[in-house]
Write a structure and sequence with these properties.
Blueprint lengths: L2 H14 L6 H57 L3 H10 L6 E4 L6 E4 L9 E3 L6 E3 L5
Antiparallel strand pairs: 1-2, 3-4
Length: 138
């Protein structure tokens, strides 16, 4: 039986057994039941808050578990890392495929791969986010 049910039972006992037969006792029992109702409401608020916090903690626990799993995978990949792979990546990188450009808006320089852009396509600066025409190769 929850607090609200017990209060309702007590109120029924007071009414059923005619305990509040004088104005003073009626006032006393009404104040008693009102106080118990207030306490029951406060308890329900705390239970709701507790449930919300519990739900939040469960979500955090799931998120942390996912991060731990991803970290474990990264550490496994790092353990499998072969130094020869690093050399292979550098061999695949062809500097001639990339061009250096300076953004006309923020004047920051960056590299891009001209073959990936159409003639009329704008190049977007990774620093300021503004677009501009791909410059002609020199």
């Amino acid at each position: 039986m929850c607090a609200r049910e017990k209060i309702s039972y007590l109120k029924g006992l007071i009414d059923g057994q005619n305990l509040a037969d004088t104005p003073e006792s009626q006032k006393f029992y009404k104040a008693l039941v009102d106080s118990l109702d207030s306490l029951a409401e406060a308890i329900e608020d705390h239970e709701n808050l507790h449930q919300d916090l519990n739900d939040y903690l469960e979500q955090l626990d799931e998120d942390v578990s996912e991060i731990e799993d991803e970290l474990d995978l990264l550490l496994e990949d790092e353990d499998d890392y072969d130094e020869d792979d690093d050399e292979y990546d550098y061999e695949e990188f062809d500097e001639e495929e990339y061009a250096s450009v300076k953004c006309p808006y923020c004047e920051e320089g960056f590299y891009f791969e001209p073959a990936l852009y159409e003639e009329d396509e704008d190049l977007v600066c990774p620093h300021c986010g503004k677009g501009f025409k791909v410059p002609e190769p020199n």
